[in-house]
Each structure stands twice: as C-alpha cells, then as structure tokens.
Amino acid sequence: MKETIAKKTKKFKFDKAGYYAIGLIALALLGFWPTYFSKFFDSTANFNFYFHFHFAMASLWIALLIVQPILIKRKKLSIHRQTGKLSFIILPLFFVSVILLKHYRIGGEVTEGLGASLWLQLKDLVIIGVMFTIAMVNRRNMQIHARAMIATGIVFIEPTLGRFIILTLLPEPDFMLGLGITVAIMYALIISLIIIERKQTSGRWVFPLLLILFMVFHYLFFFQVSFPLWDSIATWFVRLPIT
C-alpha cells in the first residue's frame, strides 16, 4: 500500500526537458526558413539590425532552455547556477528586441485596430515575464522552477509553428486560420501536460496558469478587444522615436 502511494506521489522529473527544447530549434528553422534563413542562400537577405538582434536574443534564450536541464541531469549544479545568472541579462534584452522589432515593422503608422493587434506580442512578453518570475521566486523548489522555465519555452511554439503552418502547410497563406490551428495544437499540448501530472503534489498549478494566460490573450486578440486607454498607449508606442 505504501509503495502504491509513493508511486502516485512521485515527483514529476523534468531533467530531459533540455532535449525536448532542442525541438524549438527545428521549429524555428521550419517556421522562419521562407522569410529569414532562406534569404541568406539566395542573396536576398536585406534585414536590418532589429531582425538580427531579435534572432540572437531568442536563440540565446532557447540555448539556456536546452543547456540548463542538461546541466541538472549531469549533476553540474554549480555551473547551472552560474549559467542561470545569464538569464537576467538575456531576458531583458530579448524583451527589448521584441519591442524594437515590432515598433520598426509598424513603421510609425497608426491604423484602425492597432491596440487589439498588439495583444499578440504583449502576450509573449507578459507570459514569459510571469513564468520567469515564478521560476526565480521558486528557484529552490525544482518542481515549480522547472515547470515555469519550460512554460517560457512553450511560448516560443506559437510564432515558430504558426509561421510553418501558415507559410508552408496551408495551400494559401492564411494568418488567422494558421494561428487558430497553432493555438489548438498548443492548447492540446498544455492540457496533455496538465492531465499527465494531475496526481503530482507540487507545482501542478503552473501549467493551468499558463493555459489561462494564453486563453485570456488569445480571446483579446481573436475578438479584437480594445479600449480607449489601451488604444492611446498603442498610439503613444507607435509614435515613439525608437527605431
């Protein structure tokens, strides 16, 4: 009887998460191949600093998600802690790269529905920020810390898988259809994680919180929800002389 209880309450291990995170590299290559990587092979690459800066920061964050669990698995705890300090540099720079790239791509034009359109990028920043904060506050609780860091990686699935579906799999590029398919896949993944670890005793609230945050922001974007204050902030952002 005691053995049965022990099996049911055995802590969920995430020491292989680094190997799964390698899949983000494959998704990035597939998703950004038509619009970014392929351009370097046909001599049509004319990207400015903002594109390269964003690519570099996103790559560094994914690299951390790969390396850190592997260091834990190999009992390199000291190196894990030292490497983890880089996150306090990389994450703010990643946020800056997202903001600058979005600002550049808008081009200073205030269009109808601008506020509602910005939910998509704000979603990534808010969710990663919330999950990283949870991970750092609970860095001594591996069950919570690991789940929250994995959640920051799940955020990268939407822009990478979404582009692959929209630009490669669909007969004709359709942003809303492709995004809808991507969101459905992501929800299925997160719900699967919730079901798999439903009997865990520690940290199992992280993935439900992640799902709720995604659902809130996707609702705001898909239904084009906005309000005067947010529209004013969006207009102020676009008119900032930062790019």
Outline:
This protein is an all-alpha fold. The protein contains 12 helices and no strands.
Describe the structure.
This protein has 243 residues and is mainly α. 72% of the residues lie in helices and 0% in strands. The chain is built from twelve helices and no strands. Helix 3 runs antiparallel to helix 5 (87-106), helix 7 packs antiparallel against helix 8 (142-154) and helix 7 packs antiparallel against helix 11. Residues 1-10 have low confidence and may be disordered.
Q: DSSP helix count?
A: 12
The proportion of strand residues reads under 5%
Taking the sheet with the most strands, its summary is: none
Shape: globular
List the helices and strands in order: HHHHHHHHHHHH
Average residue-wise pLDDT: 92
Q: Calculate the terminal CA-CA distance, rounded to whole Å.
A: 64 Å
Give helix % range: over 70%
Low-confidence runs of at least 5 consecutive residues: 1-10
Rounded radius of gyration (Å): 19 Å
Category by helix and strand content: mainly alpha
Number of strands: 0
